[in-house]
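so my prof wants the structure for this chain in the tokens format not the other one, which i didnt know existed until like an hour ago. anyway here's the sequence
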Amino acid sequence: MGIVINQSIKNTIITYIGFVIGAANTLFMYPHFLGETYYGLTSYLLSSANVIMPLMAFGVHNTLIKFFTQYKTEKEKGQFLTFVLLLPFILLLPMAILGYLTYDTIASFLSRENPIIYDFVWQIPVIGLCMGYFEIFYAWVKVHMQSVFGSFVKEIVLRVFITIFLFAVYFKWISPVVFINSLMLIYLASMLVMFLYAMKVKRIAFSFVMLSNSKSVLVYSVFIILSGSIANMLLDIDKNMIGQYIKIENVAYYSVAIFIATVISVPSRAMHQITYPITAKLMTEGKYVELNELYKKTSITLQIIGGLVFIGVLVNINQLYLLLPGNYRGGIFVVFTIGFSKYFDLILGNNNAIIFNSKFYKAVLFLGLFLAVLAISLNMIFIPIYGINGAAIATLISITLYSIAKLLFVILKMKLYPFSKQTLVSFAIFSIFFGVFYFWDFPFHPIPNIVLKSTIVIGLYVLVNYKMQLSLDFNNVVDVVLKKLRLN
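here's what i got, hopefully its the right format
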């Protein structure tokens, strides 16, 4: 776990720095500089692009990680990478032709409730394509155990670009429409930076030959397209469907709440950048004892760290919303609802990596298809009735059921278990901290209130978990921090 902890710490720091920049964008600049309508439109376009991203990438970013360790020579690895880089064009070319011929029909359907969407629909696949190839080049550096720079580009550089363009809107150097058009250039630039770094880590020697296991690679990619599309759909379909049923300004309100709740999943995102290729390697080598140990370690470590973040969000949420414009303050219920779904998913550790790298990945797809249909149906029912709260309820039900199903699948099929008695102890600590700190605030301005309350909560939470020794990896991280601060 040494390399996992080392790069996970770096990725976590980078990701949280990115979230600080993203928080400034999401909680202040978007609402004040861009306005509700164009903020809602921006969120709609980016969430829609994220939904189709696995399709645009043809699932190659996961395929590359799964099959990479099966190739031994540099020549074979170059041939494999060339093959998977070309796979997306199987869909891209016919999709481009079909999209061009049917653009009016598609755009009219998507903009029936909000006409402003019509002129920007074509940007969705362009941004999705840039996202997809970014993930492919990112996967290339991950398999070489170099995940930190990719995390830096994805979490910090991308958001800094957006910040610069938001300031350009504020100073009236560009209009909100120009800002939205610029999103394509921002994502294209990020993709090119990732490509150049991938070439630096391990120069890609392109070789156009048909692989001996090309059928297996192709079949896996197709299933990953569907699985990845389902996962992304469960995450972002709510924003898309809000734009179909109610005013697009509500997408802005919902996006702020989702952003706050998503902070909880940062530790998971950071750790998975490095545990995914390690999981793939252990499964390829049949080392299931080590895999089960990794499963348990990631589960309890993420539960503790994610629990700390979630507690920090919940006990400060009321004060935080006092800093936002009045129209945004109806999103507290969304933060609670989505937050709990993220927290539960966090506890599952590297569950997704295990499933996608196992021989059972096809079976999970069919379950995911059912839940995707369920998510769409629930959003169609709840959004017209309850607005953004309805979208949150639909998302909670869908993601929770999907997470439970994947957990049971790993337990029953592979006899791998993420939980232990430490899981219950950690949840008890989480519950106690919520009960003690949620129902009171200092009689200060929200900002010093949040800072003081967070300091107390973080200090006590870390101390309790450290003394309880629930996670060796968590304690090691604390020891490293204390050593750097010369307190231990």
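also thought this was worth mentioning. The CA atoms of residues 248 and 452 lie 36 Å apart.
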